[in-house]
Design brief:
Largest sheet: 2 strands, parallel
Distance between the termini: 61 Å
Number of strands: 2
Radius of gyration: 19 Å
Shape: globular
Strand order of the largest sheet: 1-2
Length: 107
């Protein structure tokens, strides 16, 4: 009986995977810089809350949540951000607590 061996090039998979991670991080930063920060600044200027509605999404990778909201805290400070942002998630309420943990650790 002969054994059949299967082989795969792990190195190229890892390289490809690393490129995908880099692309995802770039998209996360793009959301933060191009969408979240301008909306945050607008809310600050108007002295109103910025409601972040998380419902209707197909899941949020931890890297997205940390980069977006942790990054916002690193840029503007925990207290300032906490005064403005208001999170809503009826579909997945645990997300609010998850984001708040990322914001706490970001300082």
């Amino acid at each position: 009986c002969s054994k059949v061996h299967s082989a795969m090039d792990v190195h190229s998979y890892r390289r490809s995977y690393a490129k995908e991670i880099y692309k995802q991080l770039a998209r996360d930063k793009e959301f933060r810089d191009d969408i979240l920060i301008p909306k945050y600044k607008e809310a600050v200027a108007k002295k109103v809350k910025l409601e972040i509605n998380l419902d209707g999404g197909y899941g949020y990778p931890p890297s997205f949540l940390e980069e977006s909201f942790g990054g916002l805290v690193r840029k503007f400070g925990k207290e300032a951000v906490a005064k403005i942002l208001e999170f809503v998630s009826l579909e997945e309420p645990y997300l609010v607590e998850t984001i708040q943990k990322y914001m706490e650790k970001a300082v």
